[in-house]
Amino acid sequence: MSGPVLAHNKGLYKTEAEARQRAEQIGCKAVHENNGRWMPCANERELHQQLRKQ
């Protein structure tokens, strides 16, 4: 798997707290909700950018 699918597998969390913890680990300051799940970063574009840096 690669691209957005991989990012989603690394970035979907059941709780806002889990997403916030991951956001801090990868260098994001915000989280956002996506279809009832929480994701690190302000949006998916920022999440993908941060994951590519890792």
Judged by helices, strands and strand pairing, the structural class is alpha+beta
Largest sheet: 2 strands, antiparallel
What topology, given as strand order, has the largest sheet?
Answer: 1-2
> Total number of helical segments?
3
- What spatial form do the alpha-carbon principal axes imply? globular
The succession of helices and strands, N to C, reads: HHEEH
Query: Which regions contain 5 or more consecutive residues with pLDDT less than 50?
Result: 1-7
Beta-strand proportion: 5-15%
Distance separating the two termini: 16 Å
Describe this structure in words.
This protein has helices spanning 4-11, 16-26, 44-53, and strands spanning 31-34, 37-40. With 54 residues, the protein is an alpha+beta fold. It has a two-stranded antiparallel sheet. The longest helix is centred in the middle third of the chain and has 11 residues, at 16-26. The radius of gyration is 10 Å and the shape is globular. The model is unreliable at 1-7 (pLDDT under 50).
Write the SSE topology.
Layout: H1 4-11, H2 16-26, E1 31-34, E2 37-40, H3 44-53
Antiparallel strand pairs: 1-2
